[in-house]
Design goal:
By secondary structure, the chain is mainly beta. The chain has two helices and 25 strands. Helix content is 4%, strand content 45%. The protein is globular. The C terminus is likely disordered.
């Protein structure tokens, strides 16, 4: 869901609220998307400005159960750069693929110095195309929110993409020069019909190991069951069915990503005029993922805008060459000058691995 959110400054949050931006109350944010459609693939120069997660204390590296591995504020020299709602990082940790709620994709090399994130290079953007082979043009059709890599890597493969407003999950083959046309779709669960216009399927996580291998976990942004818990689904695989995630403090679900052990991580966001923006990451173990279960998970990180966050909408996970589980997060700037496209990485603390001396990524 694209929201007109504040920057990490509470003062700016108050200024945005005072401006009367109605989309903060849940209406679709469409005004700032590019009015035209990206016709084809183009290279884009991306400038990266380093950031610290704790601006006031750059030496502060551990946050909750995560270790800061660097972050950047990205500026792309194209009106189509922005609005990123989901991403995947390939197994090498060297490249990413992201989708935007303006119906476009971004592919780029991830620059790093062996451990610390430095920026993006060799960036390319292009349109997501419809069944007719043409770029998605209508606002109700191009609002891509979730991304799950099924086969291949970030260059060539097959992915699931979820869209809101015109709610659907489509299977997309892609190459370096083309994203689509879609080949097939996943049927939405019956209770997904209760999703509101601008709160569709935000999170897709394909399970690649363990007893649920072959399933895809899907979550709407904020679809509650009769007990006030988030509604989610195990789609396909050996044990399909509905699951429930306990609502802890009124956050919304913005993305999910599979972990190497068969579990997932869940990215959540909360915005209130009185408190600004917050984000949270929960880890859900593989053993918790079963139909009919009420899942709480383990909070890895909860952060408010005193730390360097924005409208955090995308998360991916990969295992680095030295054995660390790396979480990559990206923010959706809604094409607003008051927001930013942030890219950041954390290592999941597992024993002493995340605190070891710098090594090969």
């Amino acid at each position: 869901m694209a929201l007109k959110l504040s920057t990490p400054s509470r003062a700016l949050a108050a200024a945005v609220a005072a401006s009367g931006v109605a989309v903060l109350l849940g209406a679709p944010a469409l005004a700032d998307k590019p009015a035209s459609v990206l016709a084809g693939v183009q290279k884009v120069a991306v400038t990266a400005i380093p950031i610290d997660f704790d601006r006031d204390n750059p030496d502060h590296k551990q946050f909750g159960k995560l270790i800061w591995r660097g972050g950047v504020n990205l500026f792309g020299k194209s009106p189509f750069f922005g609005g990123y709602s989901a991403l995947v990082v390939d197994a090498s940790g060297d490249s990413l693929l992201a989708v935007s709620d303006a119906g476009t994709w971004l592919r780029a090399h991830i620059a790093h110095d062996g451990r610390q994130l430095k920026g993006l290079g060799n960036a390319t953007i292009g349109p997501i195309v419809g069944r007719d082979g043409k770029p998605l043009a209508a606002d109700r059709d191009r609002d891509s929110e979730g991304l799950a890599l099924l086969q291949g890597d970030t260059s060539t493969g097959t992915a699931l993409v979820s869209f809101e407003r015109n709610h659907r999950i489509l299977r997309y083959p892609f190459t370096p020069e083309r994203f689509g046309p879609p080949q097939g779709a996943l049927a939405l669960p019956a209770d997904a019909r209760r999703m509101s216009l601008n709160r569709g399927i935000e999170a897709l996580a394909p399970i690649r190991s363990g007893r649920l291998k072959g399933a895809t976990v899907a979550f709407a942004e904020r679809l509650l069951d009769k007990n006030g818990n988030y509604r989610g689904w195990l789609m396909g695989g050996p044990a399909p069915g509905a699951i429930a995630i306990k609502d802890l403090g009124g956050f919304d679900i913005t993305d999910a990503a599979p972990l190497p052990d068969g579990g997932i991580v869940l990215l959540e966001r909360r915005f209130r005029y009185s408190e600004g923006i917050k984000m949270r990451i929960r880890r859900i173990a593989a053993k918790e993922l079963k139909p009919g279960a009420l899942i709480t998970g383990d909070i890895l990180l909860e952060a408010r805008d005193a730390l360097n966050i924005d409208n955090m909408e995308a998360i991916s996970a990969h295992r680095s060459k030295n054995g660390e589980t790396i979480l990559t997060l990206m923010s959706d700037d809604n094409f607003s000058p008051l927001q930013r496209t942030l890219l950041m990485q954390f290592a999941l603390v597992e024993g002493k691995a995340a605190l070891a001396a710098p090594g090969e990524r």
